[in-house]
Design brief:
c-terminal domain of poly(a) binding protein; rod-shaped; about 120 residues; mainly alpha
Length: about 120
């Protein structure tokens, strides 16, 4: 079997890694071995944080709903409980959007939740 020299293949592979790590500090974007390690960590962080972002958004929606609910004299937990009793199925993302962009309709939803709480 003939001997294969990896010159161009290795150079292309290394250049790809070094291009992916542009902007990293120190030798983490100049030396291949350190850059490869840095790239692996960076890709893992980006994957993890894409998953974490969903929880962060839900937390933000809850904060916004709570602030809007308290301006309508009800707490977040009582609002959610009242919505369940009233049979209103609106997810937190839509509730938060409604609280910001359309406060009048949000107030209507809060009133229906309050009446459901009083009836129960």
């Amino acid at each position: 079997m003939t001997r294969v020299r990896t010159g161009t293949t290795r150079r292309r592979r290394h250049k790809k890694i070094l291009n992916m790590t542009k902007g990293h500090q120190g030798v983490r974007h100049t030396l291949y071995r350190r850059a490869h390690e840095s790239m692996i960590h960076a890709l893992q962080y980006s994957y993890d944080h894409r998953k974490k972002k969903k929880g962060d958004m839900r937390r933000l929606w809850n904060i916004r709903i709570n602030a809007a609910a308290r301006s309508n004299e009800i707490t977040y937990s009582k609002l959610i409980h009242g919505l369940k009793l009233a049979g209103i199925d609106i997810n937190r993302k839509m509730l938060a959007e409604m609280a910001i962009s359309n406060p009048e309709s949000f107030t209507g939803v809060v009133e229906s939740a309050k009446t459901a709480l009083e009836a129960a």
